Amino acid sequence: MKSDHQAQASSDGPIVQLTGVNKHYGALHVLNDINLEVTKGEVVVILGPSGSGKSTLCRAINRLETIDEGTIKIDGKTLPEEGKALANLRADVGMVFQSFNLFAHKSILENVTLGPIKVKGMKKDEAKNLAMQLLERVGVANQAGKLPAQLSGGQQQRVAIARALAMKPKVMLFDEPTSALDPEMINEVLDTMVGLAKEGMTMLVVTHEMGFARKAADRVIFMADGQIVEQAAPEEFFTNPKSDRAKDFLGKLITNH
Amino acid sequence: MENYLSIFTEYDIPGAFWVNIQLTFWAAIGALVLGTILALLRISPVGSFQAIGTSYVNLIRNTPLTIIILFCVLALYGQLGFVLSSDFQNNFFRLAVLGLAVYHAAFVCEAIRSGVNTVPLGQAEAARAIGLSFLPAARMVILPQAFRGAIVPLGNTLIALIKNSTVAAVGSVATESSSVMKTMIEFRADIVIPIFLTFAVGFVIIVIPVGLLTTWASKKLAVAR
């Protein structure tokens, strides 16, 4: 479902490229020689058991986690270590967190306009129009004046998606976006994400939602013990996993449901 | 009783308290500005900035206020000729404000830092993720929430500052309340205890509203999460 939206590609190379990435937490080798490319418009879902390093991988891509070795490139540019250059690069990478992380003291509208106004220098009226369009799109425009704590978890997460989209990112990272949600709110967030995927957004999604992986992913990456164990198209992965680790993981899912 | 009441006509007691309030006002502004800068240094990602902030706090917070104000008057002004006003009395007033601000900035810094600790790490991560660098993220996301979380400790610092403004007496600010009280006691040894009580009650009256206000504000302005 990616192919017809690749027309405006600024470069032919991958949007995200990780080469030989390693990270240790003390004795724990949390990222073990990770090589990964995400091309424009591609939706990559990362699956794996807890502690397999999938969230760390996701967070390393906009340097919320540092890495010990290897290189990470966003649209051909190596991730800077700090300062203004890093901030600029992060502005191109949307991030959606497990715990939403909306700015608690700012209204829903201000949450979405802050980045465009302060980082991109957009005029206030223009930013407000953009924000209202995005809030409309994720279905929470009628909550624009409220504070985050007044919204449900599902609504907050959709605002978080709108906040990230307002920066017109080249790629969106989702770090377990539905894991903190009540079951009845998971679908409203997943539907928003499926919509984004259909529109051609480049996405890297860490999740436990197998349904989303089947429905929206172009490629599934299975991680265990800090390594990429297997990658395949979703149908292939779910029906015919190659590695024992993946078979074991999928087997446990099925017995639980 | 008449004997006691006469001190109110002989001495300008409200005026003496007014000097303390003025000392407090200017020192509070200075301490808030300096303390915020120190807090920024201490939470900054740059190690050397953190070290500067930490050193300041450890040096100043652990030095008696009396010594800091004496330093301002005897060393800065007396020895080094550092003058803050051409008016002789006003110069002492401003040197005392400087000493009070420098001293209380260390406490303001720590109060703000305790406020920063009330802000979940995810707030800073979200700010960084939309491309805000350290200072804009601190100014627009972290500090506004940190101040709201720090109202009670900041209020405590203000209360300490109000009372500590009497230490300006050692800095030759002769018009502030404890200096006036000392003079009164010298001349009216017959009513020493009523004089003490007068000044004690005066400070209680000034300080109580501050405590009530901070309690009210900390509830009113709490960040809903």
From TrEMBL, chain A:
It is a peripheral membrane protein. GO terms for molecular function: ATP binding. It is found in: Cell membrane. CDD domains: ABC_HisP_GlnQ. InterPro entries: AAA+_ATPase (IPR003593), ABC_ATPase_HisP-typ (IPR030679), ABC_transporter-like_ATP-bd (IPR003439), ABC_transporter-like_CS (IPR017871), MetN_ABC_transporter-like (IPR050086), P-loop_NTPase (IPR027417). Transmembrane segments: none annotated. Keywords: Amino-acid transport, ATP-binding, Cell membrane, Membrane, Nucleotide-binding, Transport. Belongs to the ABC transporter superfamily. This is Glutamate transport ATP-binding protein GluA.
TrEMBL record, chain B:
InterPro entries: AA_ABC_transptr_permease_3TM, ArtM/GltK/GlnP/TcyL/YhdX-like, MetI-like, MetI-like_sf. The chain crosses the membrane at residues 20-41, 62-80, 92-112, 191-217. Its main location: membrane. It comes from the Bacteria. It is a multi-pass membrane protein. The keyword Oxidoreductase does not apply. Residues 17-214 form the ABC transmembrane type-1 domain. Pfam families: BPD_transp_1. The keyword Transmembrane applies. Keywords: Amino-acid transport, Cell membrane, Membrane, Transmembrane, Transmembrane helix, Transport. It is found in: Cell membrane. Belongs to the binding-protein-dependent transport system permease family. HisMQ subfamily. This is ABC transporter permease. It comes from Glutamicibacter nicotianae.
